[in-house]
Design brief:
Blueprint (H helix, E strand, L loop, with lengths): L3 H7 L11 E6 L2 E7 L19 H16 L8 E13 L8 E12 L2 E10 L2 E14 L1
Antiparallel strand pairs: 1-2, 2-4, 3-6, 4-5, 5-6
């Protein structure tokens, strides 16, 4: 299990753009994390006033950040910066609102040289809110 301070030692993201609060499981080719969605998130001021909805692109980013935490645990990627290289087949199925707890999961399909591909799923109360494929690239910091 990794808490916020542990995550910040692994990836460079910081508030307000760090979108993973903790990692609850790291397994073979899989990582699971949590994002607690607070009404104080800065994007809720404009998305949307009176009807706050977490932007789908930020849910995808949260999955990408979680995937980066997984990849950076491997020796060959410890000194690399993990960047989002692409999103494929993403579908958004439910709105995420303040008070929701996003459970994030990325299962890696393959990692070759400096490119990785994973399948991300975000759920709230065991209901899928979005899923799709994420491409990661390792670059020099």
């Amino acid at each position: 299990m990794l808490d916020l301070k542990d995550i910040q030692k692994i990836i460079p993201h910081r508030y307000p753009f760090l979108l993973v609060d903790r990692v609850v499981e790291i397994g073979d080719n899989k990582i699971i994390g949590i994002k607690n969605v607070s009404g104080n998130e800065p994007y809720f001021q404009g998305h949307f006033p009176g009807k706050p909805i977490m932007p789908g692109v930020l849910i995808a980013e949260a999955l990408a950040q979680l995937g980066a935490v997984y990849v950076k645990q491997q020796d060959e990627f410890k000194d690399k910066l993990m960047v989002l290289a692409g999103l494929d087949k993403f579908r958004f199925k439910r709105q995420v609102i303040p008070g929701d707890t996003l459970k994030l999961q990325v299962e890696f399909l393959n990692i070759k040289k400096n490119i990785g591909k994973g399948h991300g799923i975000a759920t709230v109360d065991d209901i899928i809110v979005c899923e799709g494929e994420i491409l990661f690239a390792a670059v020099e910091e």
